[in-house]
Each structure stands twice: as C-alpha cells, then as structure tokens.
Design a protein that fits this description.
Layout (H helix, E strand, L loop, with lengths): L6 H29 L3 H24 L4 H12 L2 H4 L8 H23 L2 H74 L15 H52 L5 H15 L1 E10 L2 E8 L8 E7 L2 E10 L6 H61 L5 H28 L8 H13 L5 E6 L8 H20 L5 E8 L5 E7 L15 H11 L3 E6 L5 E7 L2
Helix pairs in contact: 1-6, 2-3, 2-6, 5-6, 6-7, 7-8, 7-9, 9-10, 11-12, 12-13
Amino acid sequence: MLVKRSVTSSLAKALIGIVILSVLSTGLALTTVAGSLRDAEAVNIAGSLRMQSYRLAYELANGSSELRKHLVQYQQSLLAPALVKLDRFYVPAEVRQKYLLLRQSWLALEKQIQQGPPEKYQENVARYVNQIDHFVLALQRYSERKLTIVAAISVMGYVAIIALVLFCIRFMRRQVVTPLKHLVDASLRMQQHDFNHPTLYVSLPNELGVLSQTFTAMSGELAKLYQSLEQKVQEKTERLQQANRTLEVLFRCSQALTAGQLEQSAFEKVLDIVRASEKLQCIRLNVQDNLNQWQFSIGEPQYDWPWHELAITQDNKLLGNMSWQHDQHPPHPHLMQSVANMLSRGIYFNRAQKEHMQLLLMEERATIARELHDSLAQALTFLRIQLTLLKRTMAGNSAQAGEIIDDFDRALADAYRQLRELLATFRLNIQDANLNTALQQMLEPLKLLTRARIQVNCQLASQALNAQQQVHTLQIVREAVLNAIKHANAQNIIIHCQASPTGDNQVTICDDGSGIEDLNEPQGHYGLTIMNERAVRLGGTLSIRHGNAGGTEVCLNFPP
C-alpha cells in the first residue's frame, strides 16, 4: 500500500499556492504602484506646460528679456524624465500619441517663437494648450487606470486566496477530517466489540486512505479472531454445560442404583432419568440371563423409528444391551456409554446381592438343620433305642402293652422320617442366582433316585424372583418332583417356568404318573400342606389337579 498523494504534500502545495498568489498579487500591486510613483509629477509638469505656454506668449508680446530662459525651462519641462518615460511599450498608445503630438506641436511653436512673428504664436497657443489639456486628461486617466488595475489585482488576489483557502478547507474536510471522524467512530465501535462499522475511505490516495485500508484489514482480522474466540468460548461453555448435565445425570443414576437393594424399580428409575435428560422417545434395557433374558422399557416406542444400541459388558462378558429411539437430537455418546457402564455394574451387583442373600438364607437354613440334627434328631434316636430295649423287656408279657409299643414305634419312625426330610429340605444348596441354573442344580441329586426323564423349560429371568421367592419356588418344585417319583411312578416329568398373561410368575410341574387320588393328605404326612404354606408366603396360589393326558399337574402362581 503506497501513498500516491500525501496529505502533507497536498497541504504544502496549497500553502505554497496561497503564498504564490499573495506574492503575485502583492508584487503586481507594488509594481503598478511603483510605476505610478511619478504619475503625479508628470501631471504637474504637464499642467505647468499650460502656464508656461501662456507665459511665453506674454513675454513674447512684451519683449521680456527672460524669454530665452523661460524657453529653455519649457524645453526642460517638456522633456522631463517623468514625461519621457511615457514613451514605453506598457504605456497606453493614447498617452504616447498625445505626448508625441504635443512635442511635435511644440517644435512648430518653438520656430514661431524664435523666427516670429509673435502674433502667429499667440494664434496657435490656444490650440496648443488644448492639446496639453487633452494630454493631462490622458495622464489622469492612465493614472486612474493603474489604480484600478491595482485594485483589481488585489481583489483577484484576495478572491484567489480565499478560493484556495476554501479549497484547502474542503480538501481537509473531505481528505482528512471526515476520514478521521470515521476512523474514530470505527475505533469506538471496536472498543465496544462491534466490528460492523461503516465503510471507511479506503480509496483515498493519501496516508488516511492507507490507514483506512490497514484499519479495515485489522478490523476484519480482529472480527474473525473475536468470532473464533466467541465460538471457542461457546463451544467450551456448551461442553461444560454438557459435562455438568452429564455429571448430574450420572449422579442421579448413581443415587438410584445405590439407594437400598437393587430391584427392578432402581433400573427403571435410571432409564427414566436418562430418557428425561436426553429427551428420548423410548429407552430399553435387555439383560441376557443364561438361557433367558429380562427387559425394561421406558417410553412409547415408535415402530418406524430406528433403534440405537449399546452393548453392556462386564469384564469382557456380554450382559445385554441398552437401546433407545430419539427424534432429532441424539444423546451425548459419553453419557450413554457411562450409563451403560453404570448399568453393567448395577446388573453385576444385582446378581451379587441375590447370591449374597441366598448365601445368607442357605447359611441360616444350614444352621437350623444342624441345630435340629444335634438336638431333635439325637433325641429321637435315643427314644428309638430306648423303645427297642423296652420291646425286648416287655416281650410276651402283655398283648395290650405290645400294641401300645408298636403304635409308639410307628409314630416315632414317622417323626424320624419327617425329621430327615426336613433336614434334607434345610440343607438344600443353591449356588447360582439364576433360576434355571438353580433348578438344574437342585434336580441333579433327584435324577439319581429315578429312571424318569426330568425336563426343565425355564423362561423366567432371575430378576423376576428375589432370593426368598427363589428358595420357596425350588422347595415347591422339589416336593412336587419327589411326589411324582415316589408316589406316581412317573416316567416323564416336565417343569415349565414362565410369565402368565397377567404378568405373574407361573411354575407348572407335569408328570405322566398314576395321578393323585385325593388332595387330602394321609395322617402323618405334611408335604402338600407345606407346599400350600409356601405358596401363601409367596403371595400366590397353588393348584393341584389331574392332567389332561393323565398324571398330575401342580401349578404355582405368584406376583413378581
């Protein structure tokens, strides 16, 4: 960017022009005035020629002795320097002609004075004085014209100077003041972070044009930089807001998963928090549980919308997946991944809690079994030994006493058998929180007691049952399978575990044995009664009926 026409050089030229005009006008005026310095002398001398002409005529008529002297004086006056300088090129032609004519006329008059007669001079002197008058008038007009020229030159000089000053003022206003004002306004706007200032005078060929171009370029760069900084600040702010919202959501999810025992309601609350925070249409949690799975869903799914899925793993083991549907704004991926990780830990701790609860329950039942074995079982064993000794002692003494002893022996044997069944029940070992796996583990020792084919079809998720419910369910299934093996001589036993249409848990044990004859248990047997009591504790019902194709069907229904 080069300066084509500097402001200082332009101002210097204008000032030099003003000085030149002043010098010219003043010089011309002074020159004209200097040329008019002897105009008054010339007028006086020309005026004195009239008086001298009349004096010569008088002396010539009277014969004065001073005629010669005055004639020389007249000659000197006519050729005075003030009059001789009139014969120059710049003197008006009228003045020069009148002066030449006057000198020529004097030559003729001078001859008349010197040669006579005097009357002839006196006759021509009046005409000659008239020529002098015209010459004096011409000198007067010439002098006035000079003064007019001086006035005109002064006026023109003043007008030119004023015009140049006005031009300088206009030039300064257009080339300096207005661009500076725009620059000041633009700088004030930039100070207020407003880069949309009016267009500056970038086309000026002077320093202010270069300054305007530089300022405009700087303003553009600052605007880009400021916009970039604002964008970065906005991005950082959005990231911080997103991080804050993510932390808040994760905190609420953590609270939901750590408040008490991990149940279905805790996982549903987590899904509801994520759905409300990310404005999802629907969010779903699918958990793979060995051969079956359980599922939670929050929101109304849209069948024509795509599903987005995220795997839930724990120690590189797939536990299930979390899927969702969104309208326009997708959820934050880091948040969804963090929620998936949190859910994986929640599922892991849910299973650990169930296993821990089952372990506590098994330990409690094992403790009861040990206490029964160490107390009641030993007491019954001692009574049987004493009863055997009593039978030997009373052998053959009394038939009635023998019958009483036999009845007592049978009652004691039944009590001892029931105690062994009770101990076996309390010693039931559950090593897995999964219902399907627990059923398989529980049925393994029973399969060794029979040739019957025992099948398990479990479609209930482990989340559907807590530890207490699972224990009662296993005990009911075990009692029903034992009854089918011992009393019905069944060849096929099928166990179905599924959810009923009403949402309850339904467990059905079917066999193809001889079928149950009477629902009333014989005296001394309590298996069916205990099964009904367990169903009541589960908050459900137990029904025992004949199967459609024979055999017996035991159906247990209880809420999840």
